[in-house]
Amino acid sequence: MRCIGLFPIVLLVALAACGDKRAAPPQLHELHGPTMGSEYRLKWHGGAGPAEVGKLLQQQLAAADATFSNWRKDSEIAAFNAHASTEPFRATVIFCDAVQLAREIARVTEGAFDPTVKPLLDLYREQKRTGVAPTPETVAAARARVDWRDVSRVAPDKVAKSRPDVELDLDGLVAGLVADTLVHELAGLGVTNFMLDITGEVTCRGVRPDGQPWRIGIVDPQNASVGAEQSLEIVPLADRALCTSGDYRNFVVADGKVTTHVFDPRTAKNPDHGVVSVSVYGRSCAVADAVGTALMVAGPDLAPSLLKKLRAPIFLRGSSVSDPDLAAWFVVAKPDGSMQSVPVDWPSAFRVDGSPLPQQALDAAARQKHEAELADALRACEQSPDSVDAAVWVGRRLGYLGRFREAIAHYTEALRRFPDDPRLLRHRGHRHLTLRDFESARDDLARAAAVVRGKPDEVEPDGKPVPGRTPHGTLHYAIHYHLGLAQFCLRDFAAAERSWRDCLEVSTNDESRAAVTHWICSSLFAQGRFDECAPLLAALPKDADVVENRHYLDLCRLYRGDLTFAELAAQQSPWSSSLAFGAAHFAWRKKGIRAPSAPKTEAEALAQLRAVAQRGDWHSFGVIAAEAITAGR
Hints:
It is a single chain. This protein has 22 helices and 20 strands. The protein is α+β, with helices and mostly antiparallel strands. The chain has two domains: 6-346, ApbE-like domains (T-fold); 440-630. Strands 2-3-7-8-11-14-17-18 form an eight-stranded antiparallel sheet. It has a three-stranded antiparallel sheet with strand order 1-9-10, with no helix packed on it. Strands 4-6-5 form a three-stranded antiparallel sheet, with helices on one face. Strand 5 and strand 6 form a beta hairpin. The protein is elongated, with a radius of gyration of 28 Å.
């Protein structure tokens, strides 16, 4: 379905200036132009140059137009539609592939997607041209000709109708199918790092020139002016596709009634579930494109069951293909005119390399406990609408349930009522870190740091208190601590060091000092300033009162020479992600350590960092830091 509901974000971070000595990024090429009534855009680096790539694009897009355009009388689809016979129609392989895929999606969605919907779309286009709505009789006659079972692939190069007046409109998947075809064609030219957008259907391969995944924004329908779009969600795409269907740019008003181009093929009516757009994430651009069209019809309530069915293998091009990553992001209009995002099976987060992350695992007892605590927090917030603390606790309770996007949305709404409140900024920044949105985390936390500068500190209550221990964190400490981590993950190590030194200044106990001393040392290691760690490490007492942050204290003892890698391995097994990150990062910055149980070489240490980056406790700061440091290496 044609709807430009996505836009690429290709701002490149100059990592070399932030502490890592890295080569200048390769040149980014770009080509764009008109296609299929909209436009295409390709950004890439490496492989063939613009002349050769441009020639391939023009050939493939021209072939697609000649095959699938319903606006050309000489196109292949026009010839098929004019073929008023049930005799097999000889067609190109890509045309037959499109019909086969369309039938499969139609079968699984029980007709929510239907490639034979052209008679109804023709009535809509005529109404849009004349402003006159079709009669019920005309609609009924068109509806009688719509049934996906009336067309089939009967041979590798043949399709057939079961009734002569069947007509196809494959716009609901053509752009995605062409994009998938171009993925293979571009690889033949050595182009394996690119972002390809065809009429708003986006597929990405490889990484950007800075080694980071391509980032694509899901457009906010209420802020969708071309050239000034704002995003509801930024999606890192690594060898994945993101396709958006929507009705907010294609509708007609007649006799006071709004009619959109989204029809339920089974009823010949616009759906009434209020869906304005849906973006589908998956591995195949063609499948995501078609599924988006189907979900615009089916709506969010039926989406979970349909997506489950659609993840099953689909037979296409002589083989069985499946897409276990299929997920959807709906935008639904509420009765009051506002818009609501409704993610369905959407990844909880994405790793720094763009790979999707699963829902946080919670056992039944823990989930029940956290749900009860959230319910209490919501009641308290409702009873005390002017309490920032009450608002903070709702967000924290959402986070403990793994509902991180909801937590961010809650903090954002609370910040409209309590602008620049440092507690809200601090906690929203933390959840931006969890979702690997390091820039937003840095911005929130830097703002919070500016707001609290020169003001009295306050103890921050523990969300998960340890029995017998008093809270050891403060608001100022938490702001500087998380700000340093955001800057570290952006590889701005000098800024991270400054933030963590500010954090050390407000530390009031050994628990806090042990944690932040480890991170200051990590930032110094990244800058090659190993000797400057000595006075920091010496300031930590040998009998430090540390329980909760024991892994950080042990890392500091490792850096100080009080512990060896072998002793650390003997006393802590398995290692926490924070401990594993710290030890591997230290060895990597040292370019290997010749000692028992230590990574002997830089490559071995980097491999250990990569292993930490793939751990399952992905909300851990050790995992997040490992992802950020190893990305693109």
